[in-house]
Write a structure and sequence with these properties.
- Chains A, B: Pfam families: MoCF_biosynth, MoeA_C, MoeA_N, PBP_like.
- Chains A, B: May be involved in the biosynthesis of molybdopterin.
- The structure is a homodimer.
- By secondary structure, chain A is α/β, with parallel strands linked by helices.
- The first copy, chain A, is built from 17 helices and 37 strands.
- In chain A, the strands form eleven sheets. In chain A, strands 31, 32, 33, 34, 35, 36 and 37 form a seven-stranded mixed β-sheet that branches. Chain A has a six-stranded mixed β-sheet with strand order 16-13-17-21-20-18, sandwiched between helices. A five-stranded mixed beta barrel of chain A has the order 22-25-24-26-28.
- The interface between A and B is large, with 120 and 120 residues.
Chain lengths: 632, 632
């Protein structure tokens, strides 16, 4: 093998079955105290060793007696019985001596003395007795093999006298982070460093899959160091993961190492992200090369490593739940790959709307934000907006139902809102996508959002928001929830070293500007001001550089990539920048009237009027919230 | 308070809200390394501390250069560039120095020397650059408060420079088992002992709820010992559970203790099982008295303690999924209680059929076997067979779909079958209810089972099974899967001390007999033989004592409660009894023809013909399986 299998294009299914066939997976087991095996998987059927109860016992508080001593008792003919001669007193659970065969409960007794009672009903054999084995009979099956043990199973096993259980040993999964540029979290960072978070994510995933993670220290990009670590790891672990970067140079390394000390079976699977995965074996242990981009790594972990770990503990694959959803935006895909697209989901009206998230393989946040996965088959080139699709759910359906979908313009107060809504113990969520004010209007038109934060300046009248709603959403009954007035201005380096004082300075001083994306309210505001000042786009250096949020613009300025950008005061403050105010604007929430009746929206209205929320936005600074919560 | 609140009848909902209002729940938090907080819950919003990437970096392998140096490049007009003067070589992820503003990927370069390349396309600023903050912008929200941390969240937090996270401290839940009759699992058992498995089940449940369990040693029924243990536990824990027996005497004890050192708020909730729960507080810590019967305890844990634990970690209640099902048998309920009925579920045809399981509060196995819970409201006296009901699922819907429902006669080979079907890695289950052969026929008539194991002797012809199917199931197309011929006989004490040699001896020697329930094939066989021998029921001592399985009968004989009973050889062997053969009989599986096409049934047919299965039934002994798997 070797170069000839370099970046093959196996289908995922075929890759997995080919790989698993070549592997020689040895399930091992260990014997644990029954009480310590919650969540573990049985590797043999568990039969009871004793019966439960293991003696006949009383099901009631009362007296144990012989049924024959009650013959003839009636309301008219009471029979008197003597303790120790005719009966003994028993509590629930007490054993019934062999000489007695039934129990009369205390409510049916008339006490006639310290040691005597009268009864007024005859009893039958076995009445009120829990016979030996009533719950569990000796030698009967309690739970089968390959069963994930639950608390109730522990109870039944202990009741059945089973004090030790053989369960599958959790496979130890070694995780080797490689890369000269990698540093551990908490290290002092310098340009060029990459924080090794992948190996920590893998460790958490492995534990969730049912394995035991063993993380090795970072290994520099050195063939022999990597080889030696792999050799140590295959000694100490059942499965080994090597996390190489996805650059060609480094991948060759991993694949070469595995090929030297073992075999590479597959290098390259037709999935995106995740293509350059390596599946091999060293000393009869599976060794997998995981691509470095976090999103690629995630899909390889969930689709291949999970499968493998579960083989060791005989857990069947639990596929993710699938729901039908309506795609809100076109998704294009290559015929070369089976593609995994992360989706934002929300019930808007009674439709489940799926909106694709960022598809970059480096977009960690797209995994955090994703509610579901759309898998686009290799044979499909694209799916049109409006089509019904199958989405695999990453979140509970009920949680998705309790999520406010908020698509539109970004402001830091949306983050605060998202947090406060979730703090209240109603299980509600706010999930936002930052596509600018016009993007928000478009989402309202398509019915893919509950509400859209907007700040759209009418270039003619100078009025905010209302004319846009009238123009674009005239056929819908849209209300505007007044939110905040905020100050927009130029964000500049701390101390304003370039002495910027107005928008004209961008041209005069030939400043590097960073812009917002088309459709953003802030972009419109910028263009409006350029027009007023008679400045042309071409005169602005960096006009074409587009960022999607105020914070991104502020970050570009803070890092020195740009000299200034237009944005809100709070973003400048968060990034410790100086701020030159340009104007006030109105940032409101546009919402179809029908949604005002939803519980999640009512909650939102409460939250934005709450003291907590106003306190938080005071901390951010630069907001006037005198009208907040007014619906117009 | 005190006696006057003894066994109140609060509705569950009211009890919980009343109790929680009186409690003063203090959520505590702890700071953990981010990588150690998988599954924990944030107690504050997590904002990124740095951007990710935190510098502009290359998205490709290639060269970093100035876009302006490429102006005019085309297929016709190549531009030559020199390393270090015009460009530097970059790998994916490498930082872009300030003097460069774009990346041209290696595929678009023509190498002209060691240190020079030609390009044939002009580039634009920011092309192939991942700008600072592309994934995560500094100060933006990564996850909100009250969020259960997943592996992907760990990745995003570490990427965002968040190396420590404040999460809610898991509440420590003290568990105090009380009872003089309690012994630890593994102790040598004597009559009257009760194995303390409850406290172990509670511990596992508490961990599943998200708490930390602390189990105390068994405390004898001594007021002061219990009091002192409670006082120690409230010092050491956040919540304390006292597991008293459900007998009146002992419960008074727990309630008295709590009342002396704290307060009892509620004693008695209108739920069944679970009524005698005690909710109180000692030194501002919740103290709950849990009933002793395991099933009562289970429902109190799931419905009250879970709720309470989740309060400490701000986890919203995740209610169990509810499905519509058809009730196969009438369920009666008292107007005094909100009742929890454990249900066996199965998809038979496309209907979800729900069959109530044993309702005894001591029936641990009913919890193990339950697939769902039917809650019967306090205002309802009963639900008729055939009605549509809401069932709360304890198992995944897909697992229920993969379950073969098998209702009918019991034989130990059914346990073996259930195990072997689950061992195969298809995720199939076999779930059986032992209601006797006639019960199985009834279930087929009602369509509540996939198949029914039967051994029904035609008293007229001496033929097995076929005539019954013709008589009772003439309107259905039923097939018979031949299973085993087995030996029925009298099970007697080891060594046969009473010298039993025939059925006549039961009368002659005045033996204590143990019978099977009405409708069991073995009962019919016994009656058939009595008739042949001209013996009357009344002559048999113990004729009225009914057990539901061969093993239960064998257990009664083994314990000396009975001198003999009729049953199969394998059960006698499992219980180490002697066996006097009476006759051979045919134990077959009746199944509607349409189900033969189901994957789960095809699998079953494969398993019963498999070598493994035959080997296991050889071990049990007494079976002839020459026709096994033949469908007639």
């Amino acid at each position: 093998m070797g170069q000839n299998i370099y970046l093959s294009n196996y289908e995922l299914k075929d890759a997995i079955s080919t790989y698993f066939e070549k592997l020689n997976i040895k399930k091992e087991f260990e014997e644990l105290n029954t009480e310590d095996c919650n969540g573990r998987v049985t590797c043999e059927p568990i039969y009871s060793l004793i019966s439960s109860p293991f003696y006949n016992c009383s099901a009631m508080d009362g007296i144990a007696l012989k049924a024959e001593s009650t013959i003839g008792a009636s309301e008219k003919h009471h029979i008197e019985l003597k303790e120790d001669k005719d009966y003994i007193v028993v509590d629930t659970g007490d054993p019934i001596p062999k000489e007695y065969d039934c129990v009369v409960m205390v409510e049916d007794l008339i006490r006639t003395g310290d040691k005597s009672v009268k009864i007024y009903k005859s009893a039958v054999s076995w009445q009120n007795i829990r016979p030996l084995g009533e719950d569990i009979v000796q030698n009967s099956l309690i739970i089968p093999s390959n069963h994930k043990i639950r608390p109730v199973d522990i109870g039944a096993m202990l009741a059945g006298g089973v004090n030790k259980v053989k369960v599958y040993k959790k496979p130890v999964v070694g995780i080797i982070p490689t890369g000269t540029e990698l540093v551990d979290p908490g290290s002092e960072l310098k340009i060029g460093d990459i924080i090794d978070f992948n190996s920590r994510v893998f460790a958490a995933q492995v534990e969730d899959f049912g394995g035991k993670a063993k993380r090795y220290p970072i290994v520099k990009d050195d063939y022999n160091l990597i080889k030696n670590t792999v050799l140590t790891a295959v000694e100490e672990c059942d499965i080994v993961l090597i996390n190489a970067g996805s650059s060609a140079g480094r991948e060759d390394f991993t694949s070469e190492v595995i090929n030297e000390v073992g075999q590479v079976f597959i290098h390259g699977v037709a999935i995106k992200p995740g293509k350059p995965v390596i599946m091999g074996q060293v000393q009869q242990k599976p060794v997998i090369g995981i691509p470095g981009y976090p999103v690629s790594a995630y899909f390889v972990m969930e689709n291949i490593v999970k499968n493998l770990v579960e083989k060791y503990i005989a857990l069947g694959q639990k596929p993710l739940k699938v729901e039908k959803a309506i795609l809100s935006r076109r998704v294009m895909s290559s015929l070369k790959y089976h593609e995994f697209v992360r989706m934002k989901l929300g019930y808007v009206g009674d439709k489940l709307i799926a909106t694709p998230l960022s598809r970059g393989a480096g977009a960690t946040m797209s995994l955090v934000r994703a509610d579901g996965i759309l898998e686009v088959d290799q044979s499909i080139e694209g799916i049109e907006a409006g089509e019904k699709i199958d989405v695999k759910l990453l979140k509970d359906k009920d949680d998705i139902k309790n999520t406010i979908v908020c698509i539109g313009s970004h402001d830091p107060i949306i983050d605060v809102l998202a947090d406060l809504i979730h703090v209240r113990e109603k299980g509600y969520f706010l999930s936002s996508a930052h596509v600018g004010s016009m993007g928000g209007i478009m989402s309202l038109i398509k019915g893919e959002t509950h509400l859209a934060p907007i700040h759209l300046l009418d270039m003619e009248t100078g009025e905010y928001n209302i004319s846009y709603i009238k123009k674009y959403l005239s056929n819908k009954n849209i209300k505007l929830i007044k939110c905040v007035k905020r100050i927009q201005g130029l964000m500049v380096q701390k101390g304003n070293p370039l002495g910027i004082s107005s928008m004209e300075d961008i041209v005069k001083k030939k400043l590097k500007f960073v812009n917002r994306q088309r459709g953003a309210g802030t972009r419109l505001l910028f263009d409006y001001n350029l027009k007023k000042l008679n400045i042309k786009e071409e005169e602005i250096q960096g006009y074409e550089r587009e960022e999607f949020t105020h914070l991104s613009v502020a970050a570009a300025v803070a890092s020195g990539d740009a000299d200034c950008g237009l944005g809100v005061y709070s973003a400048a403050k968060l990034m410790n920048l100086d701020f030159i105010p340009i104007c006030n604007e109105e940032y409101d929430l546009a919402i179809p009237e029908e949604y005002l009746e939803l519980d999640i929206i009512k909650e939102l209205l409460q939250v934005i009027k709450s003291e907590e929320f106003l306190k938080e936005i005071d901390k951010l600074g630069g907001y006037d919230y005198s009208d907040i919560g007014t619906v117009i």
